[in-house]
UniProtKB/TrEMBL annotation, chain B:
CDD domains with a match to the protein in the record: TM_PBP1_LivH_like
UniProt keyword list: Amino-acid transport, Cell membrane, Membrane, Transmembrane, Transmembrane helix, Transport
Record's bilayer topology term: Multi-pass membrane protein
UniProt protein name: Branched-chain amino acid ABC transporter permease
Transmembrane listed as a keyword: yes
Membrane spanning stretches: 20-44, 64-88, 144-164, 195-216, 228-248, 255-281
Organism annotation: Micromonospora tarensis
Principal location listed in the UniProt entry: membrane
Pfam families (UniProt xref): BPD_transp_2 (PF02653)
Protein origin, superkingdom: Bacteria
Compartmental location: Cell membrane
Length: 287, 292
C-alpha cells in the first residue's frame, strides 16, 4: 500500500501545507485573499535550485529561499497593499501570473525547468535519495515553520492584522499605518512561500515555471479558506486537496482538475462559515 | 516618404498590437462591467473565450457558412454560459470570495473537459478562405483576416461604447455601477441588470473567441492567459470603466507585441509597473480605510 509514490505525494502535500499557511497569514489574519502565493514558491524554488550548484545543504537552501521569497514579496507587495478585498485577490492573481510568465523567460532552464541534485539535511549526512528520508526532512522543516508561524500568530502584530480584517479605519484611527502592516504581513507570507519552494525542490529535485501556475495558488487559497482562520485547518485542508487532485484524480484516470473544481464549488456553496462557527462554539464550551 | 516611410517592421508589429488590444478590449469590457455591476470577478471569463475559440475550430469549414454558424452558436453559448454564471453566483451575493471560488471551480471543470474532448495539443484555426490571403502593405505581407478583425473589432468597440455611454440600457448599467443602492431605490431592477451584464459579457467573450481564434488559437492554458491579460486591462483601466478599459487594452496590446519585439522578456515587468502606476494614482492613501 505504502509505496515510493505515496510517500513523495505525502511530501508534496506537506509543501502545499506550508504554502497554505502562507496564504492563511493573509486571508485568515488580515482578511485579504491572495491568489498569487505560488509566485513566491517558485522564486524560492529557483533560489534553492541556483544555490544547489554551490551547496546541497538543505537548511541553507531553505533560509536563502525564504529570504529571496520575502524580498520578492516586499517588492511586488507594493502593488497588492494598495487595494483590499476582491481587488486584492485580482491584483495578486495578476502579479502571480506575471511572475509565472517572467519565470518562463528569465529563469534558468526556461520553460523546460531545471533539475537539482538531492539535498543534504545536515552537514556530514548523505544526500537524501530515498523518498522516506526526504519525507522526514520535509516533515521536520514543516513543523519548524509551523511553530514559527504559530508564534507569529500570537504576537501583537497578528492582533493588528486581525484588526485590519475586522475594521481597518479603527486600526488607522489608533495611529497604525495599515498598508505598512499589510506589506509586512505580505513579506512574511512571501518568506513562508519561499521556504515552501525550497522544500518543493527537496522533494521533486526539479523546478519549472509550471510550479507558479494559478492552480497552485488556488489550492493554497482554498485550503486557507477551508481552514477558516486556523493554521492547522489550512494544513489539513491542503493535504486533503493534494490527495483529491493527485491520488483520487489518479484513480479516476487523471481527472484531478475536475475533482478540484468540484471541491472549489462545494467550498463555495457549503455553509462553511456556519460549520466553522460550530467548531468555535465547541472550543468555547471546552475552555 | 509617405506611406512607405511609415511602414517598417515595427509599425507592422504595432498593427498586430492593435488587433491584440482590440481583442483584449472586447473580452475585458465584459469582465470590467461584470465586476462594476455585479461585483463578481469571474474566473471563468477566459474559459468563455476558450469555448469560443474551440467553437471556431470545430465549426469552421473555411467558408462564410462555418463562421456564421460559429458566431450564431457563440451568441447562444455565451448567453447560456453567462446566465449559468449569473445563476451560480446569485446565492453567493455579498460573498465575493465564494463567487471567485465558484467561478474558479467552473473554470477548472471546463478546462478539464476541454482537454478531454479537444485534446491537449494546440489547435490552429484557419480564417474563412475569402480572408485567408495576405495583402501587401508598403512591401510587407499582412494577413487580410487580421485587418478584417481590426475593422470588425473597431465596430464592436464603437457599438459597445455607444451602448454603455449613450443608450438608456447603458445609463442603467452605469447607474448600478456608480451606486447600486440608490439605483435600486429609484426603481431600477439591479438584479436583472446584474444577470443581463453577465449574459452580455458572456456573449462578448465567446464571440471574441470565435473571431479571435485565428489570432490566438485554442489550446489548454489559453483561458488563464486571456483571463490574466483582460484582468490587467481591467485593473489598469479602472474597474467598471469602459473607456479606461479601451485605452488600457490598446496599451497592453502594444506591450505584448511591440514591447516584446523591442525588449524581449520585459513585458511582465512593464505590465506590473503599469498596474502599480494605475493603482498608485487611483487609490491614494487619502482615501483612508476602504480604498475601493
Amino acid at each position: 500500500m505504502v509505496n515510493a509514490y505515496l510517500v513523495s505525494l505525502a511530501a508534496t502535500a506537506l509543501v502545499m501545507a506550508v504554502l497554505a499557511m502562507s496564504a492563511q497569514l493573509l486571508v485568515g489574519l488580515a482578511g485579504q485573499p491572495p491568489l498569487g502565493q505560488a509566485a513566491y514558491l517558485v522564486v524560492g524554488a529557483y533560489t534553492a535550485a541556483t544555490l544547489a550548484t554551490l551547496t546541497s545543504l538543505g537548511p541553507v537552501q531553505l533560509l536563502a529561499a525564504s529570504a529571496v521569497g520575502a524580498v520578492a514579496a516586499a517588492v511586488t507587495g507594493l502593488l497588492a497593499v494598495r487595494v483590499r478585498g476582491t481587488t486584492f485577490l485580482m491584483v495578486t492573481f495578476g502579479v502571480g501570473e506575471l511572475v509565472h510568465a517572467a519565470a518562463g523567460q528569465w529563469a534558468p532552464g526556461g520553460s523546460e525547468g531545471t533539475h537539482t541534485p538531492p539535498v543534504i539535511a545536515l552537514p556530514g549526512l548523505a544526500p537524501m535519495v530515498r523518498p522516506g528520508w526526504v519525507y522526514l526532512y520535509v516533515l521536520a522543516c514543516t513543523l519548524i515553520i509551523g511553530a514559527a508561524v504559530t508564534v507569529l500568530t500570537r504576537t501583537r502584530f497578528a492582533l493588528l492584522l486581525r484588526g485590519i480584517a475586522a475594521h481597518e479605519p479603527r486600526v488607522q484611527a489608533t495611529g497604525h499605518h495599515t498598508s505598512g502592516l499589510l506589506l509586512a504581513a505580505y513579506t512574511a507570507a512571501g518568506a513562508i512561500a519561499g521556504a515552501a519552494g525550497a522544500l518543493l525542490v527537496a522533494v521533486t529535485r526539479y523546478v519549472s515555471p509550471a510550479d507558479a501556475a494559478m492552480g497552485i495558488s488556488a489550492i493554497a487559497l482554498a485550503a486557507a479558506l477551508i481552514g477558516s482562520g486556523s493554521m492547522i485547518g489550512a494544513c489539513a485542508a491542503a493535504i486533503l486537496l493534494v490527495a483529491v487532485r493527485d491520488w483520487a484524480g489518479g484513480l479516476l484516470s487523471g481527472h484531478g482538475s475536475t475533482l478540484l473544481g468540484l471541491s472549489f464549488l462545494a467550498l463555495a456553496y457549503l455553509p462553511r462559515h456556519r460549520l466553522a462557527g460550530l467548531l468555535r462554539l465547541r472550543d468555547r464550551g471546552r475552555t | 516618404m509617405g506611406l512607405s516611410g511609415l511602414v517598417n517592421p515595427y509599425t507592422i508589429t504595432a498593427l498586430d498590437g492593435v488587433a491584440y488590444g482590440l481583442l483584449l478590449f472586447v473580452i475585458a469590457a465584459g469582465l470590467t462591467l461584470i465586476f462594476g455591476v455585479a461585483g463578481v470577478f469571474s474566473m471563468a471569463h477566459g474559459t468563455l473565450y476558450l469555448a469560443g475559440a474551440y467553437l471556431a475550430w470545430h465549426l469552421g469549414d473555411g467558408g462564410w457558412a462555418g463562421l456564421g454558424l460559429a458566431l450564431a452558436a457563440a451568441v447562444l453559448i455565451g448567453a447560456v454560459g453567462g446566465a449559468g454564471l449569473a445563476a451560480a453566483v446569485r446565492p453567493l451575493t455579498e460573498r465575493p470570495l465564494d463567487q471567485v471560488l465558484a467561478t474558479l471551480g467552473v473554470a477548472y471543470i471546463a478546462a478539464d473537459q476541454f482537454s478531454t474532448v479537444f485534446g491537449a495539443e494546440p489547435r490552429s484555426v484557419d480564417p474563412p478562405r475569402a480572408l485567408a490571403g495576405s495583402v501587401s502593405l508598403g512591401g510587407y505581407q499582412y494577413p487580410v483576416y487580421r485587418l478584417g478583425f481590426v475593422a470588425v473589432a473597431a465596430l464592436i468597440v464603437v457599438l459597445l461604447i455607444w451602448l454603455v455611454e449613450r443608450s438608456r440600457t447603458g445609463a442603467i448599467v452605469r447607474a448600478v455601477v456608480a451606486d447600486p443602492d440608490m439605483a435600486a431605490a429609484t426603481g431600477l431592477r439591479t438584479r436583472t441588470t446584474r444577470a443581463a451584464v453577465l449574459v452580455g459579457g458572456g456573449i462578448l467573450a465567446v464571440t471574441a473567441g470565435v473571431l479571435g481564434a485565428p489570432v490566438i488559437g485554442p489550446a489548454p492554458g489559453v483561458d488563464t492567459t486571456i483571463l490574466v491579460y483582460s484582468l490587467i486591462v481591467c485593473v489598469v483601466g479602472g474597474l467598471g470603466s469602459i473607456r479606461g478599459a479601451l485605452l488600457a487594452a490598446l496599451g497592453v496590446g502594444q506591450i505584448l507585441t511591440l514591447g516584446v519585439a523591442l525588449v524581449p522578456g520585459a513585458a511582465a515587468f512593464v505590465l506590473a509597473a503599469a498596474m502599480l502606476i494605475a493603482l498608485t494614482i487611483r487609490h491614494r492613501p487619502s482615501l483612508a480605510g476602504r480604498p475601493e
